[in-house]
User: What shape does this take?
Amino acid sequence: MGLRRQLICASLFTLSLPWLGCQYVRELETTLREGQDESLVATSSAVGASLSALQAELLNTRPDTSLPGQRIYFHRFNAAPVLDGYDEEWLSAGIQARKLQTAPHSTLSPPTLQAARTERLAALFITVPTQHIHYFNPTRTDQDYDRIEIHCISLNQTPTEFELRAAGPGVLEPLQVKGDRRLSDHRVKGILRENQQGYQAELVLPAELCAHGFGLRVLTQSGIDEKNTFSSFAPASPPPAPLFQLQALNQFLDRFSQPGLRLTIVNKESAIIARAGSLQLPNAHGTEGNTLIKGLLQSLYRIAVADQHYPDLPSTAATGFYPSTLDGPVSASLSRATLQHFQYRRDIISAAYTPITFDDAEVPGYVIAERNASGLERFTQSALNQLFVYSFLITLSVIIVLVSYASWLSFRIRQLSRVARETLDDRGQLIQQFPVSTLPDEIGDLSRSFATLHARLRDYTQYLGSLASKLSHELRTPLAIVSSSLDNLEQHAPDAQAQTYLSRAKDGIHRLRALINAMNEATRIEQAVEASDKTDVDLVPLLRALVPAYQDVYTECRLSLEIAPSLEACLVSASEELLVQMLDKLVANANDFSPSDGPVVLRLSKTKQEALISLSNQGPPLPNAFSAQIFHSLVSIRQASHTSAGHLGLGLYIVKLICEGLGGRVHAENLTDEQGVIFHIALPLAKPGV
Assistant: This one.
């Protein structure tokens, strides 16, 4: 059986039980979710209807529409913060800082405020960016200084203004402002700390002082005469009433608390004024031994059922305000209970929004009931655990078999691909043996086909490898006969026309003899590389001796030598004769392609491990994707005008043979301006003491 039929049969087996189980779970989960959503809407409506006894508290939370956005929300702290001037507790609580109103024509960034309260205390954390802090100087009362002002209205409707100043980092001095007088009032306490941007201050004061009104002003100086006042409320208005959670409403909501149910009451400004419950579900009953199995079953359940994507649950911990959803559910347009679903971590949350209505037409707030719908998993899993276990075990077994089988096939294919890729070495030689698979499948047939093709290529390559030596040997005898015949014919004094043909024939003989000599030279170089004895050769004096000789021979170009500064010696382990032959071929090639009087630059440098030789010349650039092929045997890109004799392209092939025989590497590339070619040769340096 072929591989295709094997994989098809194995795949079809996994499509039965899991598919049927998923369909049944979907139907059951949909029915239970609809019932839970109806129950959540009923709970939200019941809580809203039961709030008539707390009508007075709700009416007191109505927003002051004359001061939109200026009321400060105090988050809920379970315990009073440690008054130290650092923000660790505020960061762990995740309270978002709000900016104060920017002072007119101010170049400074506005200060930020974080506010929280317990049942008895109100806490503030203020961050003030300023370039220079102007502390209070008791000896210079006529000078202005940086300070913080607190305007509040107490529980008995008494307005009070506090000023907090400091003579330096540390404890703030609290003063109660009464007209032009400043009286010490230690009901307010604060600590000031300097930071990289300016300073930060942490304050606490009794909660009853700011029960009906709270405002904050920060006064700084950015220059000698430039004063900045940042405020949380309008200058000519009394401080607006703060926003915070009401203890009476929290106790009322506690009576309706259930596992996975969170009840929230917001006013018309979307500020949270009461909250009870948590969206976290209690841990399922069971022993520690089956925790892994339960987690696996829950993951499978979510994969089977959770095919809908909901928006993320709005976060209210940072701001204290419930963000607008449903095109503004916490708005005047919401007149009846509305349901929406959210995504909370890996759970699905159902949220019901219900307006609170009393006898008057105005809606003082809204009840938001949120339930963790993931509790449905416990009911569905209790009935379907057995089906999931059986389906999972069967599917897991089939997956293991398929993965193992696919891995085995992949290993065989990768092995065949690797052998096919490595069948040719860097010198273009075929490996001797190609591994053959004996398995009777498609991959085995492909392996045997590759082996047959490899054997034929190896025979043909061996034939081509010996072709040059055979041709040079076989052509010498007929070439000698033709040459001697032409010499004899020339002795008979042919006429002028015959002399022309005779001259052409001799030119052809010279070309053939040059080609034969070139093929013999390549063969000799291969043998010389294999049998050469390596010694330490210093390239610096060698190149300095060769370049003047090259300049005398190749007068058509301007050959120059550049040796890296401070390079006094550059030893390589090589044969000096082979190095000279390699450089001869390289310089001759550069001279052939360089224009008349064109510059040819030979450079020498070295790294920690290699000696680097480069030769650049102006002239025609290399064709695209031809930089590696020019080093192959019988490859040439010369035009007919370059030389009058035939050319087999063996010069650069000899360069590559010598370079690789010495353990180095060679490559060519076009110059950056595409006006010439540069050759790079890297040879390993001689090891010290060897």
